[in-house]
């Protein structure tokens, strides 16, 4: 079974590869800020973290699903994902700038926050779509608590931020690369912190009637 990954995240790609899956990556054409703003305007308030990552994961998966259907790509499962980090009740995405990354680390050093990862999985089946059938889709959100070391020095943070790694990831940290030594404890599925919960994805794959090993395509 082919897996289409509606994401350009190197971390999600590496995680799937480590689990025996070589996905077809397709960049989703989604304006995340616009999608979130529209949803907030509709309900009159900003979305809670679990709703936000679920909404954005679905938007990404559906954008790629429409593209695959339009060009007649082979049958497969389309996976969209999104992540945010929450501390003190405030939701944080990617910091993008060194200044914002530094501010984040001043807040989270020596403390615990929550990493939310949303998942949306759509069955892309040209035979069903040719008959105007509705595509099957399922979604779920996973969350893990992340605790940071309390003895991280400013010099260490300067060096870490200078690598550029924390600028492009939710919460300004990674657990699978340079940021790992600054994390002392994770409560929950560790792959959730990477941005894609493998146990959650396995459950969604089975909900759509497939077995997890059917996705294995790497030696």
Walkthrough of the structure:
The longest helix has 23 residues, at 49-71. Strands 1, 2, 3, 4, 5, 6 and 7 form a seven-stranded mixed β-sheet that branches. By secondary structure, this protein is α/β, with parallel strands linked by helices. A hairpin with a 2-residue loop joins strand 3 (76-87) and strand 4 (90-92). The chain has one domain: Maf protein (Alpha-Beta Complex), CATH 3.90.950. The relative contact order is 0.17. Helix 4 runs antiparallel to helix 6. It has helices at 10-18, 32-43, 49-71, 98-108, 126-130, 154-162, 190-194, 198-207; strands spanning 3-6, 24-25, 76-87, 90-92, 112-124, 137-148, 183-187. The mean pLDDT is 95. The chain is 38% helix and 23% strand.
User: What is the CA-based Rg, rounded?
Assistant: 18 Å
Class by SSE composition: alpha/beta
Task: Based on the coordinates given, report the CATH architecture.
Answer: Alpha-Beta Complex
Query: Low-confidence parts lasting 5 or more residues at pLDDT below 50?
Result: none
CATH class: Alpha Beta
Number of helices: 8
Q: Helical amount among residues, as a percent range?
A: 25-40%
């Amino acid at each position: 079974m082919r897996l289409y990954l509606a994401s350009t995240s190197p971390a999600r790609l590496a995680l799937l590869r480590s689990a025996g899956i070589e996905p077809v990556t397709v960049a989703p054409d989604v304006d995340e800020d616009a999608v979130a703003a529209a949803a907030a305007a509709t309900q009159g308030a900003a979305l809670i973290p679990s709703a936000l990552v679920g909404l954005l994961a679905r938007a990404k998966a559906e954008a790629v699903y429409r593209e695959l259907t339009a060009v007649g790509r082979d049958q497969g499962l389309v996976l969209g994902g999104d992540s945010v980090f929450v501390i003190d009740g405030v939701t944080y995405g990617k910091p993008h700038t060194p200044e914002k990354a530094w501010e984040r680390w001043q807040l989270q050093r020596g403390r615990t926050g929550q990493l939310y990862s949303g998942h949306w999985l759509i069955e892309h089946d040209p035979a069903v779509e040719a008959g105007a059938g509705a595509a099957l889709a399922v979604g779920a959100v996973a969350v893990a608590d992340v605790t940071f070391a309390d003895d991280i020095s400013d010099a260490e943070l300067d060096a870490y931020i200078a690598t550029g790694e924390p600028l492009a990831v939710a919460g300004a940290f990674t657990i699978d690369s340079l940021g790992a030594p600054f994390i002392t404890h994770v409560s929950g599925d560790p792959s959730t912190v990477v941005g894609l919960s493998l146990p959650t994805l396995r459950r969604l794959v089975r909900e759509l009637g497939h077995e997890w090993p059917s996705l294995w395509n790497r030696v």
